Amino acid sequence: MTKTALALAAALALTGMSQTALASANCTEHPKSEWLSEDAMKAKVGEMGYKIKVFKVSGDCYEIYGWTKDGRKAEIYFDTKTGDVVKSNID
């Protein structure tokens, strides 16, 4: 393969990977009055064994960036009402 073909193949692979990595979770929409409070959700996440680096609201989800109890990087989306995991990416 030529350098140009290799560069093109690498660019296409990265584009596909970034679209997958950036795809957000499909959380159920709940009225804000039914959401777990952020403090309650952070406590629940801690009880699940995750260490939180970043906690945020992402659309209709709570989202964390942090680590699992065994030290692996984690990006987890949670239902705002139940606190259930909707989507997780663990490295």
Please give a structural write-up.
This is PepSY domain-containing protein. Pfam families: PepSY_2. InterPro entries: PepSY. It comes from Terrihabitans soli. Keywords: Signal. With about 90 residues, the chain is of the alpha+beta class. The chain has a single domain, classed as Roll (Nuclear Transport Factor 2, Chain: A). About 35% of the residues lie in helices and about 30% in strands. The protein is built from 2 helices and 4 strands; from the N terminus they run ααββββ. The protein has helices spanning about 5-20, 40-45; strands at about 50-60, 60-65, 75-80, 85-90. The chain has a 4-stranded antiparallel beta sheet with strand order 1-2-3-4, covered by helices on one side. β1 and β2 (about 60-65) form a beta hairpin. The protein is globular, with a radius of gyration of 17 Å. The two termini are about 30 Å apart. The model is unreliable at about 15-20 (pLDDT under 50).
